[in-house]
Amino acid sequence: MSVVEDVRTVLQDFLAPELRELKARVEALEDKVDANERRAERRHDEVLSAIRQIADYQALAQRVARLESRESAH
To answer: Is the four-CA dihedral 43, 49, 52, 57 of positive or negative sign?
Structure first.
């Protein structure tokens, strides 16, 4: 066998399966990252919604307080 054939055999016998395994592991990690990103986006949206509700409540409470102070002034 020539050196080139020996190298080719080593690549086919050892490196190719290892590379396929690494590719599969990377794909699995990418899937997990994608799922975590979707979960983080969903949580972000939930937090923003809660903040908006608090802001709406606070604005409403301020309006009620102004109306009450006007009513008590009359």
So the answer is: negative
**pLDDT for 30-61, tens place per residue?**
999 999 999 999 999 999 999 999 999 999 99
**Spatial distance between the Cα atoms of 1 and 15, rounded to a whole number of angstroms:** 19
Query: Helix-strand-coil percent breakdown of the chain, rounded to 5?
Result: 95, 0, 5
Count of helix runs (H) and strand runs (E) in the chain: 2, 0
- Per-residue model confidence (pLDDT) at position 24: 98
Provide the b/e sequence for 12-39 (b: ≥16 CB within 10 Å).
eeeeeeeeeeeeeeeeeeeeeeeeeeee
